[in-house]
Structures are given as C-alpha cells and as structure tokens.
Amino acid sequence: MKIQYDVVIIGRGIAGYAAAIYCGRLGLKSIIIGNEPGGTLVNASLVENYPGFSKISGKGLIKKVTDHSKDYNTEILEGLVEKISKVKDVFEVYTKKKKIISKTIIFCTGSQWKKLNVPGEKEFTNKGVHYCALCDGFFYKKKTVAVIGGGDSAVKEALLLSKYAKKVYIISRSKLNPEPINLNRVKSEKKIEIIEGTSVKEIKGNEFVESLVLSDSRLLKLEGVFVEVGREPLSTLAIKLGVKINKDKEIITNKEAKTNVKGIYAAGDVTDIKIKQAITGVGEAVKSVYSAYSDLNDKETLSY
Prior knowledge:
Elements: E1 5-10, H1 14-25, E2 30-34, H2 58-69, E3 75-78, E4 81-87, E5 90-95, E6 99-107, E7 111-113, E8 129-130, H3 133-136, E9 144-148, H4 152-161, E10 167-172, H5 180-188, E11 192-196, E12 200-205, E13 209-214, E14 219-221, E15 224-227, E16 231-233, H6 236-240, E17 264-266, H7 278-296
Parallel strand pairs: 1-2, 1-6, 2-3, 6-17, 8-15, 9-10, 9-15, 10-11
Antiparallel strand pairs: 4-5, 5-6, 7-16, 12-13, 13-14
C-alpha cells in the first residue's frame, strides 16, 4: 500500500484552505478535496470581523485565501468524498474519481442550512423560499419578504434584503440576539419590522409563496421567505470513522483540534467550538495542522 499524502483536507472553505497553507509551510504533502471553494462564507455579502479587512465580501475573502494557497502549490481535487476507511494506521479516501491513501485526515467540512420543516417549505423552495439573501435577494426588488431567525446572520440577511425589498420582516421565536452593532443598524432601518416571540407555522401560496401563517395565528402577505435558523454540521463521514460528536452532531475536538480517533483532526463549523466565525475556523485549522505535524513526527505539539 503506497501512502500518497501526509494529510488529506476535506472541505474547501476558509478553514480548509488555511489548513492547506499551513501544510505547505510545514512541508506536509497534502491535498484538499471538495466542490467549489468557499463553503457558506461565499454567501456573506459583507464581512467586517476578519482582521486586516475593515470590509470585504465573503467571495472576496475566499479569493484572497485561495490565491494565497497557490504560493504553496496546494493540490486540489474537485468533487465529494464518498467514503473513508481506516486500514491499519492509514486512511483510504474514496471519491468518485479516485482512491487516495493518507496518514492523517483533517475535517473542514463545515455545515449546511437548517430547515424549518413546516408545511410549504419544501414545496416552495426556490419558488419564494430561499436560504441565501446574497444569492436571491436581487429578485425581490420592491417586494415584501421575511427573514426567519434571530441571530446575527438573520439580521445581516435582513439588512441586505432591505436594499432591494420595500418591506422586510424579521421573525424570531425569541428576542433578537445579534452583535450590538448589527442590532442598532436593523433598528435604524425603516424598511425592517421585527416580530419576536412567534414562529412560522406554515408557508402558503399557489405557484409561488404568497403568505406566512405564524404560530400566534397572524397571516403575513409577502412574496419571499429567507430561512436563517442556523446550520447543521456535515459530520457524517467522521461519525462513520468512530469520531465522537456532541448532541448537535458537531465533532468534539480538544484544544489542539484533535478528535478521539488517532490521525483525525477537525476545524471550523463542523466542530463543537462555540464561536462560528471565519477567523475562529482559521485558527482551529492552524492548530489541526500543527497537531498533525507533531503527531507524524512523534513530537510534542509545537508552539502556536
């Protein structure tokens, strides 16, 4: 069995590319696998909390990072990992096109949007129900829309939609809980109306969305619904390898980004770190590479 790589990085979001850069710096032979680069970050219209950039789009930040990775001749394989097997002390990684053998794995698989799971959501997906304001907000010029969710991401989606729509509802089952700067912005925007203490019971329409039924029996007439109620980790591959997860199916890592399975590390939104930000994902990715390097060379974990 010929070992081809020291590290396979699964996921082409910002954490994955950060891991690839540090593999290059430490001389680890690595490959990063995934579909188009960016993950959920590319859907962010504005990033203001990444050091070095007072304002940058999600796509812009990803481009900076992927361009940086080219300095280290990062090897990229487009496509999804379908299966991983552990054979003795190495890992066999299978994609549709090839089989790869690696000494270690770093999971940077990120997350996907959670669904409301209410009547009408599935039927009207892409017919008035959306999960990305940056992708689809343009189509709602001078229309009425709602953002479902109460966190910082929901508030930022509403602010973006207010540039297009004539009216934006934010519907949150509890009190809004965004960053204070964004809460002030949304309260200052006259197009936005905040509705707290209720949830969506049903999405109604004919060919396209026409209204929302709320749990307090209110009916809101509108044309678009943008769901932003959080994300669920893409941890299935790791679970099949015996990696421990928490109740939310997030990969449990220690302070060195190690999992309970030797040779497997994780970083970014797929892990149990509480703060889900690009910068924290990058930090965890750096830790994961240093941990892999130390383990591969049978050394104590290097100083960060």
